[in-house]
Amino acid sequence: MVRLLENLHQFSLIMLFVCLFFLYRYLKKLKRERTLTSFEYSMFLIIKVAYLICAGSYVLLFLDRHY
Description:
The protein has one domain. Helices cover 91% and strands 0% of the residues. The protein has 2 helices and no strands. Helix 1 packs across helix 2 (38-66). The protein is elongated.
């Protein structure tokens, strides 16, 4: 049961990041066409920071498991 919940959690994270990636690309395209509103710009920055934090924490966890 725990294994199933872990798999569902991993799947939900993957889906979340896929959706965030497409939202990021959409905002990037919009930024080229016109200036972003303050809300759109804040979402643009939050997505960038979230990807950096996620990647950094993943690398740290990966290194911690192998040392």
